[in-house]
Amino acid sequence: MKLTPRLQGIADFVQIGSNIGDIGTDHGYIPVYLIREKICPNVIATDINPGPLQSAKKYIEKCGLTDRIETRLGSGLEPIKPKEVDTAIIAGMGGHLIIDILRENLNITRSISKFVLQPMVASDELRRFIYENQMKIEDEKLVREKDKMYEIFTVIHGREEIKNPIHFEIGKRLIENKDELLGEFILKKLKEVEKILRILNKSQSKEALQRYETLQERYNNLMEVLKKL
Fold first, then answer.
1. What three-state secondary structure class fits 86?
2. Residues with Cβ < 8 Å from 15, sequence gap 6 or more?
């Protein structure tokens, strides 16, 4: 079974023998893959929307895996009972929504040993939330799919102090691992910042000048990381 690069990157972070909760399963592709490849003994696939969950259910039935993959309707981690899964996948949604999911069901969050997270946006704010809430990023990688790059990381419970704020935007593990896509990833961010700086440079308002200084500092920090690769 072949997954898209993004989904494959998520699945690759799942340890063999894990009991998985796939939160926001959508079509159910990852649960089916994990069972077929004998990575997991069973999976609980959840979704807040009846439509996608029904689609996943039909796909799971088609694959003959209803005895190994259970589908549940519900919001975030609500459908999961404490200690029912040891690993939860939360992928394909914004960083703010992932934060809400982790925060709204803290008893479940604390009972799960590992999370595989793939935010579509606001990954910096998600990282900040993780480090400020007695969790830490264990591993991280970048995956390219067509013209987009995705950040995927595994999170475990524990403490780690982040001294350099740039590590909220550019994951510390990405730098330590010398991720092969990191240079390209940073260059893309630099171009985005440069574009905004050019626009702000045309304005003399106090707000624009303050924004310019903040973005210039961000630009310099990104350049420092790039130089060290």
1. coil
2. 87, 114
Give how far Cα 85 sits from Cα of 59, 109, 115, 129, 152, Å.
22, 10, 10, 22, 20
Q: How far apart are CA 3 and CA 52, in angstroms?
A: 18
Residues 188 and 153 both lie in one domain: no
User: What confidence tens digit (pLDDT) does each residue in 196-220 have?
Assistant: 999 998 888 989 899 999 999 999 9
Distances (CA, A) of 42 to 22, 38, 71, 220: 11, 10, 11, 47
What the block records as the tokens of 73 is 């309707």
DSSP-based three-state secondary structure for 143 = strand
Rounded CA-CA distance 149/228 in Å is 21
Q: Range of 146's domain? A: 5-159
* pLDDT score at 97: 98
What's the total number of domains in the chain? 2
> In this structure, is residue 164 part of a structural domain?
no
Helices (H), ranges, 133-228: 166-169, 172-176, 182-200, 206-228
